[in-house]
Amino acid sequence: MKRFTAFFLSAAALVLAACNTAPQQQAPAASNLPQPHLEKRGPVTQLIVKGEPFLALASELRNSSASSPAYMEPLWKNLKEGGMNTVLAVVTWEQVEPVQGQFDFTVVDEMIKAARANDLKLAILWFGSWKNGMSSYHPVWVKKDNAKYPPALTKEGKKLPILSTLGMATAEADGKAYAAMMKHIKEIDSVDQTVIMIQMENEVGLHGYTRDYSPAANAAFAGPVPAELMNWLVAHKDTLLPETMDAWKKSGCKTSGTWEEVFGKGDRTDEIFMAWNYASYMNKVSAAGKAEYDLPTFVNAWIVQPEDKRPGNYPSGGPQAQNHDIWRAGAPAIDILSPDIYLADFPTILRMYSRSGNPVFIPESHAGQGGAANAAFAIGEMGAIGYSPFGLESGATTPQNQTFAQFYKKAGCFSKEILKAQAEGRIHGTWVKALNPTRVKDEVVMGDYKVQFELVSSGRRNGGAPQRTGGTYAPDAQGYAIVIQDDADNFTFLGSNIRVVFQPKEGKETVGLAKVVHGDFDADGNWVPGRWLNGDEIQLRYDILPAIEENYSGQGLDFGRPSPEFIKVQLYKY
Hints:
Layout: H1 11-21, E1 37-41, E2 44-49, E3 52-54, E4 56-60, H2 69-72, H3 76-81, E5 86-92, H4 93-96, H5 106-117, E6 121-131, H6 140-143, E7 151-153, E8 159-163, H7 168-189, E9 195-202, H8 215-222, H9 227-235, H10 242-248, H11 259-263, H12 267-292, E10 297-302, H13 324-330, E11 336-340, H14 346-353, E12 361-362, H15 368-381, E13 386-387, H16 402-413, H17 415-424, E14 427-433, E15 441-446, E16 449-455, E17 460-461, E18 465-466, E19 478-485, E20 490-496, E21 498-504, E22 511-521, E23 527-532, H18 544-549, E24 557-559, E25 565-573
Parallel strand pairs: 4-5, 4-13, 5-6, 6-9, 9-10, 10-11, 12-13
Antiparallel strand pairs: 1-2, 2-3, 7-8, 14-19, 15-16, 16-21, 17-18, 19-20, 20-25, 21-24, 22-23, 22-25
Helix pairs in contact: 1-5, 7-12, 9-13, 12-13, 15-16
């Protein structure tokens, strides 16, 4: 976590800056467009911008980058050249309200101005009361007044560098500043719609302890579980997550009582208590902003790490997967509970965070080849509205991120097809990896076909004949594919480091490749056909007799390089 020094301008300089840098509204003729929002379309929830679905191919800036427009000025173009169409950028409470009741939106204005100049959308990260569970981005006037804006306390009564969730004046002050920013954004951007989403705070939760031991927290913990939470649990009893039911069943699913009477004694009850209070606090802040400008909002989770033994090792009470029911009950003004995923088994973690219809958006993760695989799986298999690696403003075009940028560029040109297929339920994605975890094969069913994927490998069989399936895998190999079913027998693939073969969904027929075309999509999303592939380009197996016995044709699609490619294929059965 890096901190930055807030800069202060004189009143005259502020007036001049507002005149010179504040983005201007477009002509009001376009103001009948709906504001950015989330919308359920078929099996997925999509982000709608200017009335059309939008796929956020994003990157999150480092914490302090956006605090200086001069620092960012040469870096915006790197993000655009790296294939991004969206940037996640921080706005802090301490910069917006350095003096209580006096708001400075210079950073917001400069950010919007630069994003528009580079044809980029923005998701603003509001760093108010908490960042990574700590409190450091709130104004000095809040930091100095512990009586009015109380910190959380340890069991021994020591102050933590973390604002208490029970500080009602803190929530009110945070909400006022946030609402003022949202009002300002609506005034300058509701037509252009440069700002499309908001992240509330950052990776909230209590470090070190399972719960806050401040006087207000102790009183709340000893008192009854709020009726709002109990009523929500009762109303959703049949669809609660197992982690919620496991805690509630300890009391026989009591519908009233203290926290320990309802959920039992122990760390899990402390965590549920903190989850309710973080969710309730952040709901107040989010609702204040939505009252001014109702943009989609999300929170991000510092997820549980393999070495963590109890809440407090990870921020206790944050929007981790096991706390989602509590957050849904306490924060209806927050739309998405998003995971920051830096651990190796991306698909398993993402499936945990997509339960109960939670829309999929990943605000922090890796770039590189692994990041491309993560993004392809999230978008193709999980219906994600977007993906965002961290800190690419200076690294988007570096060699180590070359294949990631290539994926973003191709996915951007292909995004209309992706979004349409998501809404119609005719898209899948796959993620394969040699090690940690080992997942070298995958299969999906699409229409009348089984589509089978395998990580690229080396190997020879039958006395030295080339064998391009099976064999050995490079330890760092990772592959992916997005596949869309265009109609009954036609499919479009975007793949990297992967090979694809086909079998019938049912029966003993063999699936053949009637036509295979390598090509690309242009900037307007139009298919531009290239080579017609046959012969060596599609013959994956030369041990043809064993292949036939296994019900394979021996032919398939070969995405044999890290650089992603498009292939369209027409299938038939014989």
